[in-house]
Amino acid sequence: MAKRVLMNGNDAIGEGAIRAGCDAYYGYPITPQNELTAYMATHMPEHRRIFIQAESEIAAINMVFGTVAAGKRAMTSSSSPGISLKQEGISFLAGAELPGVIVNVQRGGPGLGNIAPSQADYFQATKGGGHGDYHQIVLAPNSVQEMHDLTIKAFGLAEKYRNPVMILTDGRLGQMMEPLTLYTGRPPVMPPKDWAVNGARNRSPNFIRSLYLVEGELEALNIKLQKKYARIRKDEILWEDRLTRDCDVLLVAYGTSARIAKGALTVAREAGIRAGLIRPITLWPFPHTAIAKAAERAKGILVVEMSSGQMLEDVKMSVNGQVPVFFEGRMGGGVPLTSTILKRIKTIARIKKRR
Amino acid sequence: MDFTYKKPEALTDVRTHYCPGCGHGIAHTLIAEVVDALKIRKRTIGVAPVGCSVLAYFYMNFDVTEAAHGRTPSVATGIKRVLPDRIVFSYQGDGDLAAIGTAETIHTANRGENITVVFMNNAVYGMTGGQMAPTSLIGQKTATSPNGRDPETMGPPIRMCELLNTLDRPYHIERVAIDGPDGVRKVRKALFTAFKAQVEGKGYSFIEVLSPCPVYQRLSPVDALRFVGKEMAAYFPVRVFRKEGTIINA
Ligand SMILES: Cc1ncc(C[n+]2csc(CCOP(=O)(O)OP(=O)(O)O)c2C)c(N)n1
To answer: Which CATH code, of 3.40.50.970, 3.40.190.80, 3.40.50.920, 3.60.10.10, is assigned to A240-349?
Structure first.
């Protein structure tokens, strides 16, 4: 029976990981994701799973590397400064083609910043973050329910593609409580892991590496990775579409910003303005085509973010200069206001139609 | 513990890339002999470091994974915790273990992970071209201490066995030296003790192997053995520090 419970977003991720069959969780305290680490400290041992409070975020991501290399499921979580420390490890996961789930409950930056919600790690998450030509899959929940559901999805995707997956969320969604329905299905099916290092019994030894010194070998690996990324782009893009069929003003926002944008959208519609919203759920791969299509008859696009305008670049790329793109955002832990967004929507609605 | 002098099954039959007189090849062979002697090849998982021995997975005939520079014991922890019946060891140079990975080294030992750490101390960074290591001796000339290691500005060499011996959880801590045939036999014995302890579930073991690197110790292979046995051993005493969980006084 599906069970309805009240939980905060961080705990919902933790419970999602447990229900997805996460064998080991490694964390290091940092606000605003501490609830998640504490949740795992309490509940992983109850399920006879592994919990370690690591000595650093670097140690934690490399423990993840070990566990997934051994063919088991692992997750780590942190917030912005700690995620910066994990970047080398994420690049190694990508290079060695290992699964692994990383949660970033973003806070304000740069530097130590603050502990307020933020979306300023978008570039880091979607454009690489660590060194080398790689991509992680990036999922952006916008409710406590999605924090839970997308965590389960993350484990499935990570193993399907043998690739790191990041859940990119923020301190507001992490701390906020909402009712949710807990996942009662089976954990995502584990594909056979004949590549894992778990003891060379009845087979020749396996080795896991991201080092390729022979001429041409590393290029071949990169070509293979790019083909994989193309498959992910083809099959895994997710977004929510709200009232875009007739929209004059297209809003594009994800996570917390999308919740606020939805509020503004409702008020705008009540005022007779034809506004619509595309909410990317996967930030990489990005719903470029969905945005281009939804913007076809729009007067303008308004991108709303809790950053200086990072996803903005992907939206501009989606429409390639065909539609004017505007931006409304706050930085350093500031959250955009419905009233400000509404004002911007009204201005865009007054633009004379093109063509 | 009986050893027959033949190619161990746990070693692949390929030429290594190691320089003449290097200690890594010897240490690989000794580990392979111990793995064979304990009959654990099919359940042994090695974690290779970033350093000269980064390609150890080509030489070891059992499962091996790479690890980011210095994070070798964290990767080993991540494997051992989810596969507690496998035999997991990390193999690390002095840069990997005692510089960039010092925090991981100490905390893995402090948690008493049931793994074996093989610490190859050659007093230099081999892979990157002979720079100063945390274990380079005072006065030792390297690419980054061209006038010799000056403890005033560079600090003196770090003694890892002694440092780890202050922790409660380690089960076995020992320093040995590849300084000649007798030294090599002692290295094998120490490795056997350490791996056996893990097989029996006793806990964390740490074997530091003082090791020749003729190229970057700037010596002939024969003089490098003398350097290890005399000069390195003078600063890094070759002995057992922890036995069956008990501190052994010098
Ligand atoms: C993060 C990072 N920093 C630096 C390096 C470059 N690097 C490769 S091996 C190494 C040190 C190797 O020395 P050691 O650990 O003593 O092993 P040895 O090569 O002597 O066996 C360094 C600094 C790296 N690969 N990654």
So the answer is: 3.40.50.920
